[in-house]
Write a structure and sequence with these properties.
alpha/beta, eight-stranded mixed β-sheet, six-stranded mixed β-sheet
Length: about 575
């Protein structure tokens, strides 16, 4: 749907765009866009990297880049404000001073009135001790708090139109969905038209806080495709053989130097985790930033040194394995990183780097292969992941993100591994490209009968990929069960919040995650948990069975087993 098809109802809309085109030289960057955003409504505009979302918002804000010609009609009723991707605030001035300046200039408020409105605005975004925060500089706030301050500053100015370019994109899912839900609720109450940009969602049915959604692709606006909800993957039978990977009481900590009393200080990232993985089994590691899932994935492969515990692969303790044994193990154990381009050497071609992997990791009996045999092997590896052989001659910088992800997968598969560790392998991909890559990964895993360890912040994605799932919080397992069981009835409040955020429903958790340097006593979730009581501060909960194959570390999980939907999330 393009052109006039996406124009909203007429009459008093704060933003109305008709036939907008952005040109530079002979290039058409945006082509005849037409749409409207009515008062008190939320329109989300999604699109892949380079689609032109930021360019469009800058043009709507009256700030087109130099050399860009704007054609067409942009009609704006009332004041407009643009919040950029970084939510930039002046680092040299306090939060309060920035409120006073903006509200004085935009609304003519005196300093006292402006500071009172500033405190009220911060409280609307659940900033504790809001009045005291006004004396702080932006860099004295955490990332989530800075975003609350930036959006509160924008809304306090009472704009008729708020343009927000991928706000809070770097925040953890539970924080971002809650923040955007609060923003959408405030704009509806104030009658502000809100235009949000962001990455496309795999499932267009997930609209989050939006009243309407549009997609920007190849310079044109389209309505979201009606994509059928994917059928759940076939339920795999529980593995019957012994585990090939066994992790026992693994602990990873990093030294922080000595405190003022001379005592050694450590940051514990993985705290006594134990997992088993059988041949061909899939296990998802779910958790947000700081949960320990990425460090756990790397520690299993000895890319990060543990300070305690044991990692056993086919009976060999990798933590104590000599170099030759570790080299043999690396043929079986491969990893995919969040940024595949960063994992390649920018000064070597893809073909040279894949050939180096063959030389380094293949058994000695394969070293005598001719150059023709090696070239054929590399071409076959690329063909398996859907890339042409011509990619072998390219440098990493010439690859698109989707091609780089597939090239990284091809390199990982070259040694014919038995375990593939995936640390957010599709983090750089959006929408259809992300879905296609994950479908390819699942197909290859089934065909090769690989064991798979998949770490992700996206609970819905992890539960689709893993037969079992572990939910991690500050280095500990808080819930463990089959993925189908977790998807239908997670028992831990943190698990429910992750699942709710993945469905773009507002999580019930409040506040910000605690610092891993100073975790709370007792349950580490208690300061954010809606179910916490005084007993939660006394003793850390242990991971106990609540049903066959289902374990939970929570003092209130069993008492609240029937109230999952209310605790996990609510409609935005």
């Amino acid at each position: 749907m393009t052109g006039a098809d996406v124009i909203g109802p007429d009459g008093g809309a704060p933003l109305r765009v008709e036939g907008l085109s952005l040109l530079t030289g002979r290039d058409i960057l945006l082509d005849r866009l037409s749409f409207a955003v009515e008062a008190g409504t939320v329109l989300t505009l999604s699109g892949g990297a380079g689609a032109g979302k930021t360019l469009l918002l800058r043009a709507l804000a009256g700030l087109p880049p130099k050399g860009v010609t704007v054609l067409g009609d942009i009609r704006i009723r009332g004041r407009r404000l643009l919040v950029t991707q970084d939510g930039a605030l002046d680092p040299l001035r306090t939060i309060g001073a920035q409120f006073v300046e903006l509200l004085g200039r935009q609304s003519g408020l005196d300093e006292r009135t402006a500071l009172r409105r500033a405190a009220e605005a911060l409280e609307r975004f659940q900033v504790p001790a809001a009045a005291r925060r006004l004396a702080l500089h932006p860099q004295e706030l955490g990332e989530a708090m800075r975003w609350r301050a930036a959006l509160a500053l924008a809304m306090a100015a009472q704009p008729a139109l708020l343009l927000a370019d991928a706000p809070a994109a770097a925040l953890d899912p539970t924080q971002r969905v809650r923040l955007l839900s609060d923003l959408a609720a405030w704009t509806r109450e104030a009658g502000t038209a809100l235009l949000l940009t962001g990455r496309p969602q795999p499932d267009p049915a997930l609209t989050g806080p939006a009243d309407r959604r549009l997609v920007l692709a190849q310079g044109r606006l389209e309505a979201p495709e009606e994509v059928p909800v994917p059928a759940p993957p076939p339920v795999e039978p529980a593995p019957s053989g012994p585990p090939v990977l066994s992790v026992r009481d693994l602990r990873v900590a990093f030294p922080l130097g000595r405190g003022w009393r001379g005592e050694e200080r450590w940051l514990t990232v993985v705290d006594g985790l134990s997992i088993d993985l059988a041949e061909g089994e899939t296990l998802a590691l779910l958790g947000e930033t700081g949960s320990g899932k990425s460090v756990l994935a790397r520690a299993i492969l000895r890319l990060v040194p543990p300070v305690g515990g044991q990692v056993s692969w086919l009976g060999t303790d990798l933590a104590a394995a000599p170099p030759e044994a570790m080299r043999r193990a690396r043929r079986d154990l491969q990893i995919l990183f969040p940024d595949p381009l960063a994992a390649f050497d920018p000064l070597m071609t893809i073909g040279a780097q894949l050939a180096a992997t063959l030389e380094l990791l293949l058994p000695p009996r394969s070293a005598g292969r001719s150059a023709t045999d090696r070239a054929a092997r590399l071409a076959e590896a690329l063909e398996e992941v859907g890339l042409p052989a011509a990619v072998l001659d390219l440098y990493p910088g010439a690859l698109r993100p989707a091609e780089a992800a597939r090239a990284g997968l091809a390199r990982a598969l070259l040694p014919e591994p038995r375990l593939l560790v995936c640390d957010e392998p599709a983090a750089t991909l959006d929408g259809a490209e992300r879905a296609d890559f994950l479908a390819l990964l699942r197909a290859i895993r089934r065909r090769r009968r690989l064991a798979l360890l998949y770490a992700t912040q996206d609970a819905a994605e992890g539960l689709r990929i893993g037969r079992r799932a572990l939910v991690l919080l500050l280095g500990r397992i808080v819930e463990s069960a089959d993925s189908a069981v977790l998807a239908a009835g997670a028992r831990h409040p943190y698990s429910r919040a992750l699942i709710a955020a993945s469905r773009l429903a507002r999580p019930a958790l409040h506040g910000d995650p605690p610092s891993p340097l100073r975790p709370p006593t007792g349950c580490v979730l208690r300061l954010r948990c809606p179910l916490a009581h005084d007993g939660c501060a006394q003793v850390p909960p242990t991971l106990d069975p609540v049903a066959p194959g289902h374990r939970v570390a929570c003092h209130v999980a069993q008492d609240d087993a029937q109230d999952g939907a209310q605790v996990g999330g609510q409609a935005p």
